[in-house]
Amino acid sequence: MTEDVYVVGDDPAGPDPFVVLAAAAARGGTARLVAVVDTDGREPYEIARKLATLDHLSGGRAGWRPTGDPDRTVAFVAAVHALLGSWRADDLVIEGGTFVARPDVGAFRHRDAYFDIAGLFNLPPGPQGRPPIVEDGAR
Question: Helix 70-84 to helix 44-58 angle, to the nearest 10 degrees?
């Protein structure tokens, strides 16, 4: 049995692929929702937030296909993974008016030849933690 996959490209002249996929997520279903991300024209923080949001909205069906300069793409994926991995499993607490377990929840630091970023990633991870990179429509 094959899995249904919706792949939306990253076209500067078209709508943001994450917006299109969020609309698809709202319709329900079980299809994997894959955004093609041009790593040459985007920033890791922006994409990490959009991936985590889509993963939340879709109940864990988000995926992505990074494209662009190969060296920058490798660095980009590492930076996105650093952001998505900045929350620990026990960081989100929803009881007695407390929502996070520590004041520096989401703290991240990533430095390489392409990116030097640090701060707080203010969105808890989605159901998958790190949505998978999808090649050719398959997981």
Answer: 60
